[in-house]
Automatic annotation (TrEMBL):
Pfam families: Peptidase_S49 (PF01343). It is found in: Membrane. GO terms for biological process: signal peptide processing. It comes from the Bacteria. Belongs to the peptidase S49 family. This is Signal peptide peptidase SppA. The keyword Hydrolase applies. InterPro entries: ClpP (IPR001907), ClpP/crotonase-like_dom_sf (IPR029045), Pept_S49_pIV (IPR004634), Pept_S49_SppA (IPR004635), Peptidase_S49 (IPR002142), S49_SppA_67K_type_N (IPR047217), S49_SppA_C (IPR047272). The keyword Iron-sulfur does not apply. One of its GO terms (cellular component) is membrane. Keywords: Hydrolase, Membrane, Protease, Serine protease.
Amino acid sequence: MKFLRNLLAAILGTLIAFGIVFVMFFVFISLLGSGEDTINVKQNSVLEIQLQRPIADYTGTSEINPFSGLFEESQGLDEILHAITVAKDDDRIKGISINNNFLLAGLAQTQTLRKVLADFKESGKFIYAYGDFYSQKDYYLASVADSVFLNPVGVLDFRGLSSEVLYYKDLQEKTGVKMEVIRHGKYKSAVEPYLENEMSEANRTQIKELIQSLWNSMVDDISLDRDITAINLNVIADTLGGRLPKYAKQNQLIDDILFYDEYENKIANALAEGETEDINYIALDDYTRYSTTKELRSGKDKIAIIFAQGEIFYGEGGPDIIGQGIINEALIKAREDEKVKAIVLRVNSPGGSALTSDIIWREVELAKAVKPVVVSMGNVAASGGYYIAAGADKIFAEPTTITGSIGVFGTIPNIHGLAKDIGINAEQVGTNKNSVEYSLFEPMGEAFRNQVQESIEDTYETFLRRVSNGRNISMAQADSIAQGRVWSGVDAKRLGLVDELGTLEDAIDEAARLAEVESFGLRKYPKYKSGFERFMEDISGAGAKVKENMVKQEIGEETYQVLKDIKTFMNQKGIQARMPFTLNID
């Protein structure tokens, strides 16, 4: 049996090796023919935008990396925005078709996309949008178009925003597996699902106010582009006035109800082309490869953009994780580079480790002492995400950014109930009074709880001090807008947590103004290995991804997310400065 197992393993290994060589052969063949010359942008072309992969602020692979873009699961928002901006001044591009998106992006990212598309329209070129199905976020993006079209049997979802939070108190009692919770802040409800069966009024209030502010920003944008009052848009949402194509058209959410071939006739007419087969479409991915060769900003002086995206964990970090290793290395490079005159820190994070947040905060302080540091907030810059931003010279947020959440907590798993039920008894022996710190097989002792609570309070006070000094307000003022409360970008500006509402580009312009430079190029940090290189380094990671997808298919996306959230909490180490709950906005 052992021989057969080894033989099968050898055969499988050989097949995998041949498969990799086969893939590599075609990769290198394609790379030999790559380059700007192979991207054929014809005259009278239409840029086709189909965004059906997850959008990250930044993918981090170098433009000169031959493997850039291969095996990447996400699209870089920075590259998409750059491509649309280049297309604006490209005489060969006559318009844009937003076609059947399934937008996997945050609200702030979507709002930024709308802004660059609105700027594209200023050139006099057209934007048309077509959908078989519009989710609310898809429609929010599409509404910036000159004309919006819907399939005759299509669906347009327009009902307002909602959020659902799951509670696990009964589950813990039934299984005997629980989370011991120590927290500060009456609104610090990241841990509330482990303590209660129902949502507290404090949590309900903050979620209601947050999603109302986000909805108001969306409605204001749609109102402007569709010429429908905010009042009427809310009536449409309340009455589900877009649920059928005929109602969507009656309520002016769309311009017409068309089959796709009829939509293409509209594009052909806009191009003054006789036949739809004469339309020259160019896919966004293809045009992005062309546009990356075109610099929109140049000069010997540089502005560094450092992308901090993902949850905050102690360690090196990576494309989806903020660690002090990779972020501080980028800050030091930018600080010590004489050509870099200012730094823009792009933050897109719900927070995480308080220790790591403070380590990064310190490096931001050191950089700020040498050159201007401006923060640009993405979809979310909350708790630890706000922590690392608080000391900047200036902070920009989108109206739909989720920020604040100034508060800390600790969660420690405990299985005493389960152990007792299945007949496990743990006995401890120590040399000193406090040498046995904690056992997950025993109820948490009061002495240990007090010790952790002391650390929580000390970390919270430190967090407040960072905010107080960074925002030039008193500790009392910082505390009054803290307590773990989350805010939209609009409310954060009103409260003084951010300075301006604006995009990453606005933050770059402000950094240049503070540094007193007019012409400058951009340097982006950190640099990551491409998806293909990461795949080659860890073939087992691909297997893990396959298993993950199989589990999702078996138990469903929502159940998988519940298990993932529980696992995340179980794996948290140290005091956390994290978003107050897993916020899924629909």
